[in-house]
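Hey everyone, long-time lurker, first post.

I ran two proteins through the pipeline my lab uses and got sequence/structure pairs for each. Pasting them in order. The first:
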Amino acid sequence: TLLWNTKHNKNRKGNSKTMKNHIFICFEGVDGSGKTTLAKLLAEDLHAQYYYSPPEILLSIRSQIQRYDLAVRFQYYLLGNFIASEEVKKMVKKTPVVVDRYVYSTLVFHLPMMSKEMSEILLPDHIVHVTASWDTIEHRLSQRANRQKGEELPYLQAVAQQYERLFSGLNNVISIDTTSETPLASLRRIKDRLRR
């Protein structure tokens, strides 16, 4: 399964520099950590294509899918990852790509249901794992007009532990804590790490 294949450079199928010309970066983290803000800023700064996942073609049914059990939701997000992977494969030939949530979110939210089919998904060159203190996350989420059921802190804390577990053995993860800095300061740190 992908969890074990992501001991990263062991199986980056189709991800060699001969297969694509530009960098592919994904942002991961719990809701309210600052992922979307930083992903958009980095995409703008790099003149990259910003890509929100799940793909646009699936967004119209997302709210209906949330009413179903875990197995159906997992298949929905899995399909979204395959579509995103195919779209990113095309984009990355022309421009850098920054993805806001990707296969790693699917894994940590649906870890018990992983399957071997996910091993075909294109993996990013870098993963930007965005975190913040739980007080900061709670404050940010409280500012949202329509806070979702999946944005409750105990659930997000469990998801954060899965991210830590998933990313612990990877050498391409850039961890950014957004608790005490502006988005632009976080962006500078991300860019510094990407230059290394």
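...and the second, right after it:
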Amino acid sequence: ASGDKVRPKDVSVRRNQLDAWLTEIGPKYITSITSADLLKGQKELREAISPRTGEPRSNSSINKFVFTMQNFLQWARDQQLINIAPKIRQLTADNGRTRYLFPDEVSRFESAASDISDLAFKAFIHVAYVTGARAGELKNLTWGRVDFGQNTVMFTETKNNTGRMLSIDGCAHVLRAYADTVADKANHRHVWVNEK
């Protein structure tokens, strides 16, 4: 997308990842790629041996391929080459940590969040809660990476630089209410702008 900074090495890596997808799902017109094709490709990528390590790829490695395909399909949709981008979920990466709220914490959070009157802050808190995104990811989110049609957001500037597309099904209504109050939602504009 315009405004995104992409290093030459990243271009080469993403091209190689798209070539791997092409190998796994076969030659297809972009308009004929389905979610089933993507699931099949993801399965094949999981079963294939990495040429670099000689071992099967980890889930976090597969997720880099998934992100590249998600980004490519989002670009195709933005260019009006396709009407709807087929969906594919990233795999659960085993990083040895479990992060979740206990039931009593969930109810306390939901009660407190519903009382927030500032729409920008309320949307920020809800998107953070539903997606698990870090504060830095949320602060770097632009309107061009929010897709209300499919209720997803694309985080491109992440801690490990892999990027990820996440569902906002649980908070789209709150984010949309905030979006309705924002005058300039050009693709390059940040969703949350500190005006102080």
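Reply from user beta_strand_b:
Welcome! Quick read of the second one: Residues 102 and 108 are 10 Å apart (CA to CA). The helical segments are 8-25, 35-47, 59-78, 103-114, 119-131, 135-139, 172-179.
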